[in-house]
Protein 1
Amino acid sequence: MTSHIPIAHTISDLASEMILAMKKATAHAAKSGEEKAKKSLSVGFVATMGALHEGHATLIRRAREQNDVVVLSIFVNPLQFGPGEDFDRYPRTLQADTELAAHVGVDVIFAPEVEDMYPGGNPKITVSSGKLGTLFEGKTRPGHFDGALTVVNKFFNILKPMVGQATLNAYFGQKDAQQLALIQRMVKDCNHDVVIKPVPIVRADDGLALSSRNQYLSAEERESALVLSRTLATLREQYITGAFSPEQVEQARQTIDGTDGVRLDYLEVVDTDTFEEPVDEKARVLALVAAYVGNTRLIDNMEIN
Ligand code: AMP
């Protein structure tokens, strides 16, 4: 079945589609009663790199429930990939993504070409992700968060004027916990008029965090990858039962690194809000992990207290 969602490939197409979508939403609000029509509209935005799965669908459904208009971006952002990473082979599945988007109720898809986002080549002025951007993911992937923040900053700057007085809500997954923390920081530090809505991690039945990169895994690798979520769950169990100690973290590292075909990048336990060592007893505590399963780099995290 082909869908009829408008796909804007350029910023000016997006502007036209947003005018139509906002008009439709206003008319719909007016029809559905005075009370609703008096309230200002809201727009939900979900930024993705495509190859959509149930994790993305959950973000979109949340946006659909909470907003009058839902915009989905699909853009494999070259700025957030390092040399030797998977930019060229990252799955690009616009047809299937459009079907999924239609199914979950997206109003407008923004799928720009690299040239539309970065006319004339990479931008000279970019967002710097600061110290947090150099830790964990940022340590192994230098420049990754500067690239991710730069594109999210552009998306916000492109969309906000198009939604006018409407509230702009942007949905991001806790799967990318460090990215989410950095985006929240950017919104604060750069005074973006955008509300960030975090969405919990969506997992397969066996616990594997859903990711577009899971499709790189062979059946055997996928089985090995389960050690990540299982080890995080063990740490949570130990934390909750009071059996937690720094040695447990070291043991967890060894469990992951000792699994066939798995090479640990990092496993750290941090304060969920600061991403620093947890000191405050009341702090929420997050265990963060990254590992290579075969050639595929996977990340996962879990609040353990
Ligand atoms: P990506 O396409 O990988 O850039 O992800 C787009 C958005 O979907 C980001 O906000 C991710 O955190 C979110 N996301 C990806 N996978 C999941 C998942 N398994 N659960 C929740 N959110 C996810």
Note: The chain has a mean pLDDT of 96.
Protein 2
Amino acid sequence: MKKLLLVLLFIVIMASLFIGCNNSENNGSNKQVQREAKVNDNSKSQSSNKKYIFKIGHGSTEGSALDYGFVEFKKIIEEETNENIKVEIYPNQQLGGDTELTESTQFGNTAIAAPSSAPIASFEKEFYALDIPFLFPDRETVYRVLDGNAGQQLLKTLDGVGLKGLGYWENGFRNLTNSKKSVTVPEDLSELKIRTMENDVHLAAWKLLGSNPTPMPFGELFTALQQTTVDGQENPLNLIYSQKFYEVQPYLSKTKHIYSPFVVFINKDLYESLTDNYKRIVEDAVKEVSVMQRKFVQKLDDEAEQAMRDYGVEITELTAEELKLFRNKVTPVYDMVKEKAGAEIVDMLINEVE
Ligand code: TK8
């Protein structure tokens, strides 16, 4: 009898524990259910008064190129939806780096993100097409091609991975910095350990150039440069400045070897849940910001260059002949890109560049 009582007591305790657990689980999934309910009835009624909070994450500092874009985006969205959509911006990798942000936007934990195109290629291989070194001769061509058919075709491929592509903002042409020596020809790179973005094509290109490359998340880069785990890295001027890389990288060569844009995307289910009107507001806002943001970044790049020069960074302009030496070394990468991204998108992109 005593035994039976003990067993009963045990069952009661376990049951209450289980209910407790379940409850706290429910709290988590309740939000999900609420959001789903909101989503469903929103798409039915097409009313514009549903409330949303769009969580946005990015990897750079406040006031940087990407942050500027999202701040402008927030202003437009909140105004045009009468704050029915509120935007919360989390800078400085608070919600993770480019790879984590892509994943969390796929899952809907983050509403919107704008990672560099290079790490996105791990999620949607057609994006490797943008990793052809020296593909774009200048900014005007970049804007024309990204906003044109090839760029739009690329954005559409994101549909297949739970994302809705909205547009391209500027990070900028990337330039090499290092802590060891002035680099003017590929031979100068031998024995330099270079951090690349997490992308096989970038890794292959830097090997072909004769350096010793290693992929690394952006969030670990400053410390790695400071502790000389790596000797160099490559990023646009404005970012080299805003991330203070120049403080530990006295040499900068204007290689302009690649333009890896910020790709702005939104969780696909969230997008589908919006009324047609809100969909349009979101899409138009990203386009409107593209124009302002690109202008802003051009100014940032110029200011960054001047400020780094003043600080004492040795900035090397490369001649057309010197750049050609770099370009020749990386030509094998072209076939690799074609194999990874598919000939169709690569040909389309190259045709539109020309
Ligand atoms: C920051 C990243 C970064 C990228 C990199 O948001 O990893 O070097 O250039 O700017 O997207």
Note: The chain is about 50% helix and 15% strand.
